[in-house]
Structures are given as C-alpha cells and as structure tokens.
Amino acid sequence: QVQLVESGGGLVQPGGSLRLSCAASGSIFSINAMGWYRQAPGKQRELVAAITSGGSTNYVDSVKGRFTISRDNAKNTVYLQMNSLKPEDTAVYYCNAEAWAVGSSWFYDYWGQGTQVTVSS
C-alpha cells in the first residue's frame, strides 16, 4: 500500500511563512496528481492546491499569489510553500495522492494524517 507522511506545520504569526512537505512511501507503481487540502473547524474540507505529474498546478482563489505547490517525482514528495499567511489559513492540512500501488488495478486516493497550521499573533 501507500503511506503519506506530512511535516512542517506549526504556529506562525500573520504575514509569516511555512513550508509543508509530504512524502509518499510503500509499494508504489505510479503517482498521478498530488495535492493539499485543508479543513478548518466547522467547515468542509477544501482543495488548496494540486499538481499533476507533469507539473501543471491549480489553486483555490484564496491562496493564489501566496502559496506555491511543487513536487519532486524522484522522491515522491510534494511541497506547499505558504507565504503571507493569514488567520483564515488556520486549518488542518492534508496531503493527497492519486497513486497506483503495486498489486492494485488502478489509481486510488491516499491521504496523510494531517498537520495543523495555526496563524495567530
């Protein structure tokens, strides 16, 4: 199977920066898209940013110009550079990967355990 391990969350002041990382491991045949979602208390989980294996990206409007998603295909790792953070960015951030595990018949969604990002003074 596929495991996703996130790191890089924490507490930061408004206007600050954080970089999240997510490494996929296990018996992986291929990874298609990777992305970051977030869920704030009392709200639905939303897609923040996604990146295809070819490098195409998309972002939710609220983070455009502030967040940058990137990936290292050789390391099966996706990153989220978050700049100019705002209190409304506070949420649990989840990594997602569409991965084809060895022994599977197609791509399936896999999720990390989540990492807390808190933006507060």
Describe the fold and architecture.
With 121 residues, the protein is mainly beta. 0% of the residues lie in helices and 59% in strands. The strands form two sheets. Strands 2, 4, 5, 6, 9, 10 and 11 form a seven-stranded mixed β-sheet that branches. β5 and β6 form a beta hairpin. It is elongated and about 50 Å long.
Summarize the structure.
This protein is mainly β. The chain contains no helices and 11 strands.
Write the layout of secondary structure elements.
Blueprint: E1 2-7, E2 10-12, E3 18-26, E4 28-39, E5 46-51, E6 57-59, E7 67-72, E8 77-82, E9 91-101, E10 108-111, E11 115-119
Parallel strand pairs: 2-11
Antiparallel strand pairs: 1-3, 3-8, 4-5, 4-9, 5-6, 7-8, 9-10, 9-11
The helix content is under 10%
Q: Uncertain regions: pLDDT < 50 for 5+ in a row? A: none
Largest sheet: 7 strands, mixed
Based on secondary structure, the structural category is mainly beta
Strand content: over 45%
Query: How many H/I helical runs?
Result: 0
How many beta-strand segments?
11
Order of helices and strands: EEEEEEEEEEE
Mean pLDDT: 96
Specify Rg, calculated over alpha carbons. 14 Å
Shape field: elongated
First-last Cα distance: 40 Å
